[in-house]
Specification:
It is built from 8 helices and 5 strands, in the order βαβααβαβαβααα. It is of the alpha/beta class and about 220 residues long. The protein binds flavin mononucleotide (FMN).
């Protein structure tokens, strides 16, 4: 099979609207680079596609035709968003291309990338269950510092991320798994952790003020 015949399917696992999520920005960078290497691509937003029978069959058909499925998602409660798990369960029940592969990119709000590790292990298990070859995963922390804009428009913060994704693309188009160096670069803090936490705290306080609950930030309503 020539490179021109190769198809990559980007599944965006964030429930945010198109153009708004870090998951989409990360996935789109990979897709563009793969297209430049002769691959054809398709992008599907999981939440929207599961909301109709037509959307669901479009997703399953696209998965059946893909040589590489790229799942890019936000970490939700140390796991994958529920629609992403549902989509992967549906895909696992479907006939897929021989030797098709799954690769995953997880991004989380905590500063440390390692919070994504369990979710990436779940993805590896889902790949096994679906009969997909696991091509590896990338974990990014400090997702709250990024936006849905194209990575090249997100300034120096995106530098290491772009380097990591470019290394990953090189490996994936060559039929290899994501290299350790790509995993390391993606896991590096994009700004100092103290700065990220300070900006995060400022953001929480500003939102609390806007919604009139500034004095309630330390409440513990579920504490027995
Ligand atoms: C319901 C919900 C649960 C979340 N759970 C976690 C979590 O367990 N750990 C974490 O580090 N971030 C968590 N986050 C933060 C998101 O992972 C983070 O904001 C991410 O960058 C969003 O990516 P997106 O723009 O692709 O949706 C959670 C966010 C939401 C809305």
């Amino acid at each position: 099979m020539t490179t021109e015949d190769q198809r990559v399917l980007l599944l965006v696992g964030s429930p945010k609207a198109p153009g708004r999520s870090v998951s989409e920005a990360l996935g789109c960078h990979v897709i563009e680079k793969m297209e430049a290497r002769g691959w054809s691509s398709r992008t599907i937003f999981i939440r929207a596609s599961l909301q109709s029978d037509g959307g669901q069959s479009t997703l399953l058909n696209a998965a059946s035709n893909a040589d590489l499925i790229l799942l890019s998602f936000p970490l939700y409660v140390d796991s994958l968003p529920a629609p992403v798990i549902r989509a992967m369960e549906l895909i696992a029940e479907h006939v897929l291309r021989k030797n098709a592969r799954l690769v995953a990119i997880a991004n989380c709000g905590f500063p440390e990338a390692r919070h994504n590790n369990v979710a990436l292990d779940i993805c590896r298990r889902l790949a096994d269950a679906a009969g997909l070859e696991w091509a590896g995963g990338l974990a990014l922390g400090m997702g709250g510092a990024l936006s849905g804009k194209h990575l090249r428009d997100q300034g120096p913060m995106a530098g290491k991320i772009i380097e990591s994704l470019d290394l990953a693309v090189d490996a994936l188009v060559g039929g290899e798994s994501i290299p350790d160096e790509a995993v390391r670069r993606m896991a590096r803090p994009i700004i100092p952790a103290v700065m990220y936490t300070a900006i995060g705290n400022f953001g929480w306080r500003r939102q609390a003020k806007r919604y009139g609950v500034k004095g309630k930030l330390n409440d513990r309503p579920y504490q027995p």
